[in-house]
Amino acid sequence: MKIVIAPDSFKESLSALEVARAIEKGFKREFPDADYQIVPMADGGEGTVDALVDATGGKLVHLDVTGPLGNRVQARYGILGDNGASSADKINAATAIIEMASASGLHLVPQNLRDPLLTSSFGTGELIRDALDKGVRHLILGLGGSATNDGGAGMLQALGAELLNAQGQSLPAGGEALLELAAIDLSELHPALKQTRIDVACDVDNPLCGIRGASHIFGPQKGATQEMVHLLDKALGQFAHVVCHQWPDKAPMALLPGTGAAGGMGYAMVALLDASLTPGVELVITALDLDAAITGANLVITGEGRIDGQTVYGKTPMGVLNTAKRHNVPCIALAGCLGQEADAIKAHGMKAIFPIVPASVTLEQALATGAANLERTAANVAGMMRLAQS
């Protein structure tokens, strides 16, 4: 029997690899001789670096970079190894996985200092630059959790671009500065970018500007008042105006779904760095070649910390389920808890979902006992399978 275990992390409790190992341990109580394929998963958000590094035998790179407010912060990214890499998708140079939040995340800015007029994505650009300097020629960038609304301007500046005002002076950091943008000079952009493929994990469909744009939808959670939201939206509009003036063929891009992700970072990546925007879980599935792992399997087990009605909209269990369905392999899920409309995923073909918390406990207790709860639940599921076989 071949069993593929492909869960996401249980946030604040266990990494995706730790979740998979606990499930494997529980199943081995009933099926010790099964062929277990462990594929730690993620959906492009927090935990994606760890999942891909763990699954491919890669390594973490730690770097001192510029934080959202200009202070120095410790960030990291991953360089993937060869284990589990798709032979069809591999390129000659290394692949790096970068989470924007590591260098430019909201968690790096104290609540009382959050101001998207000033915060910059420069640190994310420094991570990209370091990866390029190390020979990476395939970048996977996870958007989400950012503190910025600068349209990726800081990131571009870190990579060598010049953003200039009408007097030819370089713009300072922050989203508000884009109001003064008059020209963009890409002549000193990192030369390796021309040979680099960039895939951006993006799970929102917001355009750059307007009432559904980056500033209106995501600005308030980053500290923007309504007055600031309007300023920031106008600033991103100026950014798009300059881009369209210099490169007329880029004109439609500001309206593309996802260009408003991460304070407009999606727009900079697509319009100026020729990146592709893709749902995060699809990028991870491709990078880890989950299809190959599932081929010939008898069962797929996935899961995440919480399954609810939102899970069907691009979360890890849904991506794994869709992959399993392509191979006509049954899929079940284990979750830390089940929220409202959790059964929605069953309507899409998930055979069963199992919450793992055994009793009414505090959140702290649930997080602390995640591994034991997963192992016990997995063993009980395996026991039911054994009974069905008999």
Automatic annotation (TrEMBL):
Which InterPro entries does this one have?
A: Glyc_kinase_flavodox-like_fold (IPR018193), Glycerate_kinase (IPR004381), Glycerate_kinase_RE-like (IPR018197), Glycerate_kinase_sf (IPR036129)
Q: What transmembrane ranges does the database entry give?
A: none
* UniProt superkingdom: Bacteria
The answer to keyword Transcription regulation applying to this record is no
Q: Which Gene3D superfamilies match?
A: Glycerate kinase, domain 1 (3.40.50.10350), Glycerate kinase, domain 2 (3.90.1510.10)
Keyword Lyase listed? The answer is no
Question: Any idea which UniProt keywords this protein has?
Answer: Kinase, Transferase
**What Pfam families does the record point to?**
Gly_kinase
GO MF terms here are: kinase activity
* Similarity remark: Belongs to the glycerate kinase type-1 family.
- Kindly provide the name given to this protein in its UniProt entry: Glycerate kinase
User: Which species is this UniProt entry from?
Assistant: Shewanella corallii
The record lists the lineage as: Bacteria, Pseudomonadati, Pseudomonadota, Gammaproteobacteria, Alteromonadales
